[in-house]
Design goal:
The protein is α+β, with helices and mostly antiparallel strands. The protein has helices at residues 3-20, 24-40, 42-48, 55-65, 71-82, 89-104, 119-129, 165-177, and strands spanning 106-113, 137-144, 152-156, 159-162. A 4-stranded mixed β-sheet has the order 2-1-3-4.
């Protein structure tokens, strides 16, 4: 079975537990943090996959690395370690987040801008672009790109809406040369 399918099954189980225990938001927040930690520290997964590390050592390492997470999340991480599926921890987190977002009509968006967006600007971007992708709202990650001349570039899934000044100049240049 491929990793995305396996990760989806673990995420679905965790999603169902979260719904039953009214912990969906808490689990979502914890998985976002865990995902961020694992992406920033790829050596952690490599360490967990080491054959020199016993199962008990793996479980202790996970427990010490994520001491404040809820029982369902820690149990899922332990189960993944027990079954030698440490390599899909990030995929499980992503799958859970995507499933919860889909239920709530939320899309993940990356907004590139010259400066950090204010809360009002983020709300405005969400109000404009969420309907374009058939969602109610956007969960925005703002990336400051000082190389942009102005405007914003919004990436939602595999769609890019380029309203940057650089993008407009590039399009104008292509139009003039054709």
């Amino acid at each position: 079975m491929s990793n995305p399918v396996v990760a989806e099954r673990y995420a679905l189980a965790l999603y169902q537990v979260g719904k039953e225990q009214n912990m969906s938001d808490k689990i979502d927040e914890e998985l976002r943090t865990i995902k961020k930690v694992l992406v920033q520290n790829p050596g952690f997964i490599n360490l967990l996959q080491s054959p020199k590390l016993s199962l008990e050592d793996k479980r202790n390492l996970i427990a010490k690395s994520f001491p404040n997470v809820s029982v369902p999340v820690i149990n899922t991480l332990m189960l993944l370690a027990d079954r030698h599926r440490e390599n899909i921890m990030v995929e499980v987190a992503e799958s859970y987040i995507n499933r919860l977002n889909e239920e709530r009509g939320i899309a993940e968006a990356t907004v590139y801008s010259v400066r950090a967006l204010t809360a009002d600007e983020s709300k405005a971007v969400s109000a404009v672009f969420a309907p374009k992708v058939g969602k109610q709202t956007l969960n925005i990650e703002n990336i400051v790109d000082p190389n942009m001349l102005g405007g914003v570039k919004v990436r939602i899934g595999n769609r890019i809406f380029d309203g940057s000044l650089r993008g407009k100049l590039d399009r104008l240049g292509r139009k003039l040369t054709s």
